[in-house]
Amino acid sequence: MAISSLNFIISQFETEKYRYFAIYDEDGDRVYLQNDLIDVESAISKLKNFFKDNQGYYTIYVMSKKLLNKNNLKSRDDNTIAKYNVEVSMPVLPQGVNGLTGMGGSSMLPPDDPRSNAPNMFQLLGQMSQVEQQMKLMEKDHQHYREVKELQDRIAKMEEESSKAKGMGAIVDRLGEQFSDPNVLLGLISGVSQLFKKESVVPMHGVSREDIMPMNGVDEQVINNISTRREKMVGAVNFLRQHDKDFPENISRLAELAKYKPAIYSMAVSYLNNL
Length: 275
Prior knowledge:
There is one protein chain. The chain is an alpha+beta fold. The protein has helices at about 5-15, 40-50, 75-80, 120-180, 180-195, 220-245, 245-260, 260-275; strands at about 20-25, 30-35, 55-65, 80-90. Among the domains are: about 5-90, Dna Ligase, domain 1 (2-Layer Sandwich); about 120-180. It has eight helices and four strands. Strand 1 and strand 2 (about 30-35) form a beta hairpin. The longest helix has about 60 residues, at about 120-180.
């Protein structure tokens, strides 16, 4: 948010011949309204008099004409031709206040005393106030930068998550299209079935079947169990293919449920087991 100096605003009033204006404090409350039909010099005088006795952060709305309804914000905005933000930390010091006495007129020090040209207390306070004002403006700019940076990071993260979601959705849609083809599904089932096939073991010459030790702890009972589960799975798939015309779509949705919503999938399996 740009901050204008009071001198700049006054020069704009003089150049653009502004006459109607409203002043709002930092809470958005209107604290002054110049809505009378007066000349430019009188309007500028009112503006100066206000800031001579008031300090703080203000927003000045300049209107092109007199407002018929003073409290109508829409009418104010429709007729606003300029808007300025200004921060006044302390009133301008009256001329003639100098020296160490703190009073108008000449200093009590001799003219040739080096201290007679030193800044007086009011000048030092004015300089300190200007430094404080600059620090406040820098703090506001830094806060604004942090807020913008945080917002940019959040937007980038949301875009990244949205991109990932779209990519996963495309994969799921593609799989759904493939599984809708019965031939593809049968090929997949056949491939899976081959993984569970019981491989025939051919003994070496002179070695009987009983002499062959099970590999990796897989004995005959485990192999038989795998074969039984394979036959059970194939039988169930064949049955569903015959009695469920939407079997490819349904099994695809079931797989998606197990992958993306495992909790719901577990509940469904538990329900089936309890039937």
